[in-house]
Amino acid sequence: MAAQQSQGIQTLLEAEKEAAKIVQQARQYRVQKLKDARSEASKEIEAYKKAKEAEFKAFEASHAGTTSSAQASIDKETDIKLQSITASFNSNKDHVVKKLLDRVVLVKPELHRNLKKV
Length: 118
Prior knowledge:
single chain, mainly alpha, 1 helix, ion transport, ATP hydrolysis activity
């Protein structure tokens, strides 16, 4: 009976060792699958990043001419407005100086409106 119990214990120990091997293999398999999934995801991310960067470069190249032409038109408008302001200044400066001198030189002495007669 002792031999039979010993043999039963031995069988259980072997079964436990085999179960531990199966669990260890399952863990290794899971770890390997996780590594594969991460590397695959990394490759997909890089491919997506390259595609988006190429798309951005194409967009930037197609709109680069638009920026320079817009800058040129804004510079042209600025020059036109500056010329208009300069012309307005030159045509009205004599009139403004005359008005200022008239106000300063021609003084009409009057009593202040807050001053009351006693």
